[in-house]
Amino acid sequence: MSLSLPAILLILAATLAVAVWAVGDLATGFERRRRLAARSALAEDRALGGLRDRLDIALRRTEFGKALARRIAASGLRIRVSTFLLLMVVGSGAAIFLIGEWMAPLFGVLAAAGVAWSFFAFLGRREERRKEAFIAQLPDLARVLSNATNAGLVLRTAIEIAADELDDPAHTELGRTADALRLGQSLEDALRDLAERLPSRELGVLVSTLVVSSRAGGSLVTALRTIASTLEERKEIRREVKTIMGEAVVSNWAIGVLGLGSIVMVNLIQPGALRAMSGHIIGQIILGVAAIFFTLSLFIIRRITRIDI
Description:
Subcellular location: Cell membrane
Largest sheet: none
Membrane topology: Multi-pass membrane protein
Domain Type II secretion system protein GspF: 142-266
Pfam family, one: T2SSF
InterPro entries: T2SS_GspF_dom, T2SS_GspF_sf
Order of helices and strands: HHHHHHHHHHHHH
Oligomer: single chain
């Protein structure tokens, strides 16, 4: 049986497509194998990616880069160390340019420092929120661990179950602890690392209970149930205090916005007034004293509204 020309061309095209796909898949496999081999050799770290990858690797090798990487991981941000620093540098440069258009160059430099401080303040705020979210999940975590151990499961398996059942950030943090246990890290060290990543009084009590129970034994189920009920009560108290202090927190932010808004309004009402004022020593002193008072008021309100439970 003879085939027509269109049928032959169709078969050839399909064969060629399969061959190209197979060659491409084979090449991808070789490339993945080469990358895995390169990752095991410290001398080939720089061949893994482009300039951004090499820059990120170089930053992570420094003490500052390691500390910043830990803070970024604790905050839950999906961002590279190099990208974070690049955004901070770009924001500082923009502040120097914009503030330098309104005021003396000295205030542009101060504004750049303020932008850099704002980046780290934002990072710290993200860390604090993530830690608070994890603390709010601790009663559920204690109950899951209690139910799992009451069912006869070992604590390692109970942690894996809790990592699967709970949402973020507990899902991510417990997943890291479970991975560390799978790689051979001791239970005590893995729990200590968890407490160091998210330092809090509540987590410290839970970790200490688990560590002591793993060492000396005892009724872990009863202890976890007691901790769960206690943490639930502390969670409600924290929620009530946060609700009561909500007005003061809003006032804190309002004072900061009013301070910046007043400066912008002065320049809008009388263009060039800020540059003329900041160009003289008396104007610089007045602006400096005003900035100190605004900063001091923000600090005082923040300290008043911060209650440790």
